[in-house]
Amino acid sequence: MSATTASRDAPGIYHKAGSLRSERRWALWTAYASLIVAAIIMLAPPVYMFLTSIKTSAEIADLGGNPWIVRSPTLENYRALLSSPMFMGFFWNSVKVTLLVVAVSMVISVLAAFALARMRFWGSQWLATGVFLTYLVPDTLLFIPLYQIVGSLGLLNSTWGLVLVYPTLTVPFCTWIMIGYFASIPKELDEAALIDGANWMQMLVRIFIPVALPGIIAATIFAFTVSWAAFVYPTAFITTPSEMPLTIGVVSQLIRGDTFAWGQLMAGALLAALPPVIVYVFLMDYYIAGLTAGATKG
User: Fold this and answer.
1) Do residues 20 and 146 share a domain?
2) Angle at CA of residue 182, ends 180 and 187, nearest 5°
3) Are residues 189 and 44 part of one domain?
4) Residue 139: CATH number of its domain
5) Residue 197 carries which DSSP code?
6) What's the pLDDT tens digit per position in 260-285?
7) pTM of the predicted structure, to 2 decimals
8) 116 alpha-carbon distance from chain centroid
9) What is the torsional sign of CA 166, 169, 171, 174?
10) For residue range 164-222, what is the model confidence (pLDDT) as tens digits?
11) Do residues 251 and 122 both lie within one domain?
């Protein structure tokens, strides 16, 4: 009787297994197709920019040719930019502003997040929510009052004005990221540190910062990307070429009226996008490793 029942159920089991394999196969193919389409959409602009950057001006102006084919590749556009003192000035302005903004943002964010996540006081939850809500205000609305503040301080046409206003973009989100990491740390660590006689600053430096290193790296990457790629604030606050960062310097100096130096524009845009790419390539490995290590501890 049992053998007869098993023989009847076997085809149903095999059919279900075959159906599951078929569904997994179709899901896999769908995922790969979606990834290929997304990769084409995302990579088409930088590939086109690179192809344009290695063309001569005459080839770019030739509208009869295929824009995706380079007949006579050249690195003249890159050589012209890298040998230009003005372009290197733009680059060093961006480096100076970005490093200062990242340092200021991380100091403020770590201290604020630690206070809001671990040092409970009246209104701390509302204040934490308010910090994140300030990040949702677009910079296109903030640059008008910030322009008046920066002007009253005499920091217009100065990279120090950018160092002052960029943290308004980076600090709220970095603080929100760090609040989540600090809040996930067990409270027993606080109690053990207090019993051992540690103060709040010692707890932050010796316990919370090492444990929350993945969050600090994520916040650092965010602050670096935002401060390096910012466009609205430098456009509004900087008009002197010697103080311009890379994002607006390339655009403002390589467009003369209705004349566009497309080859150098594309080369400059790619060179400007290179530092964030390098940062992501090197730091994302540490970020993932930190998450894995934190998930397997104890």
Assistant:
1) no
2) 120
3) no
4) 1.10.3720.10
5) T
6) 788 888 988 898 888 888 888 877 77
7) 0.80
8) 24
9) negative
10) 999 988 998 888 888 878 887 888 887 788 888 888 888 888 888 888 887 888 888 88
11) yes
